[in-house]
Design goal:
By secondary structure, the chain is α+β, with helices and mostly antiparallel strands. The protein has eleven helices and 18 strands. The strands form three sheets. Strands 6, 7, 8, 9, 10, 11, 14, 15, 16, 17 and 18 form an eleven-stranded mixed sheet that branches. It has a five-stranded antiparallel sheet with strand order 1-2-5-3-4, with no helix packed on it. The longest helix is centred in the C-terminal third of the chain and has 34 residues. The radius of gyration is 28 Å and the shape is globular.
């Protein structure tokens, strides 16, 4: 945005829409650049024809484009409106200590005009909360430099999860990245150490996740009835006998604690994750008790074209555990990232509807089948009504046991990729 110019005769101000404001709503423009002007005032100016875009009357909901000229009433009108409207609080830039600024800048592993990628250390929360005073969001003022706007988080990592965290430097970039994450086009690759070795080397976990009742939202669990759809792909990189495995994880949805819940649900909790794995999540032999979950890589389209594709170094405890177990870090980076895109939200909804329709059809077939058997046995037509349905596939029958895991490469006796005949199917839903 260029500085406002004032018409000497009328006092009206003119502003040129900047590149960072391209495509936003007009009311959003006021929040960014004239925050003391309330929405009520903007709406009043629109109704009375005082608010203009390229000379034409405008409304607060109109979208504006870079290069357009806004005509806004004089500052006196702002002051008069402020006497009526409630004063608005404007966030002031926080002055960080030298140590905090140094911490913020030491995390930067990628920097350009639109974004940072940080390597978040374990133990540092992404955002503040109860009794959480130091967090990444609170350190972003140390990365503002000479920019007019403050950097903005576009996704988050758990407090004890380390690794690549994307931060937008402009409002336009924040909107662009938010769309990439919601549309599932951003790719995230995690490394984890897990207890024992999955029987399937390359699998897809599809288990719905919801907040666990009675935990205040602090803990999640698998909930087939009420949970939100969640998909995680895993690949075994290397194994230490039957004691532990080093796995690559790719979340295709973004549920809270998704990777931790999914790995615990299939019987292989992440090492150090006592919350979901209990005492079984800790290995003996000097392996660190810290969480072994690291956001190794992030790959996302850049707002100005091209790609951001950044790898984050492992934290000390994770790197030492790999060495102690005899794993070579290079093996993980040698895996080729599957370029198949994750299903969109609409595709996942469509699959859910198709699954529900299939279940209803199966149940209808079961009811018809029971009627035919009863009619043949008694010679009389089966009654139209009856007691509650029980048995496989019924609403009141026993719950389905075991998570759904899709996979085609069971792990052999040696390292992953060795010869071995496919094992039996691991449970319902396994393909």
């Amino acid at each position: 945005m260029t500085a406002g110019k004032s018409d000497s005769d009328t006092g009206f101000r003119e502003f040129n829409v900047g590149f960072d404001d391209d495509g936003i709503r007009l009311d959003r423009w006021f929040k960014r650049h004239l925050p003391d002007t309330s929405f009520t005032t903007v709406a009043m100016w629109a109704r009375t024809g005082q608010l203009r875009v390229d000379g034409a009357r405008a409304t607060p909901g109109d979208r504006i484009a870079a290069g357009q000229m806004l005509r806004v009433p004089p500052p006196e009108a702002d002051k008069a409106a402020a006497d009526v409207d409630k004063p608005r609080r404007v966030r002031e830039r926080v002055i960080l200590s030298d140590e905090e600024t140094e911490l913020a800048q030491s995390m930067v592993i990628h920097k350009d005009f639109q974004a940072f990628v940080l390597n978040k250390p374990p133990g540092l929360a992404t955002q503040g909360g109860t009794k959480t005073t130091q967090h990444v969001d609170g350190l972003l003022d140390g990365l503002q430099y000479d920019n007019e706007g403050r950097p903005k988080l576009v996704h988050r990592l758990d407090k004890d999860t380390s690794g690549a965290l994307l931060v937008a430097r402009t409002s336009r970039a924040a909107a662009f990245f938010a769309k990439a994450f919601s549309g599932r086009t951003a790719r995230k690759v995690y490394w984890a150490l897990v207890v024992d070795v999955p029987s399937i080397e390359d699998g897809m976990i599809e288990l719905p996740i919801a907040k666990q009742p009675g935990t205040g939202g602090e803990k999640m669990h698998v909930d087939e009835a009420e949970g939100a759809p969640a998909r995680t792909r895993y690949r075994v990189i290397e194994r230490a006998g039957n004691r532990a495995a080093w796995v690559e994880l790719q979340p295709f949805t973004g549920r809270t604690h998704q990777l931790r819940v999914h790995m615990a649900a299939i019987g292989h909790p992440i090492v150090g994750d006592g919350k979901y794995g209990g005492a079984a999540a800790f290995l003996t032999g000097g392996i660190s008790r810290k969480m072994h979950l690291h956001a190794r890589r992030i790959k996302v389209d850049h707002p100005d074209g091209g790609l951001i594709d950044v790898t984050a170094e492992l934290p000390t405890h994770f790197a030492e555990s790999l060495k102690q177990l005899g794993f070579e870090e290079k093996l993980g980076d040698d895996l080729v990232l599957d370029e198949k895109t994750a299903p969109t939200r609409e595709q996942m909804k469509s699959r859910a509807r198709a699954h529900a329709k299939s279940v209803r059809k199966d149940r209808k077939g079961e009811r018809r089948g029971r009627g035919v058997v009863e009619e043949k046995a008694t010679g009389k037509p089966a009654p139209k009504t009856g007691g509650p349905r029980t048995g496989a596939g019924s609403k009141f029958g026993a719950p389905r046991s075991g998570p759904r895991i899709e996979g085609a490469k069971p792990a052999g006796r040696g390292r992953p990729g060795g010869a071995g005949k496919p094992g039996p199917r691991s449970g319902p839903g396994t393909r």
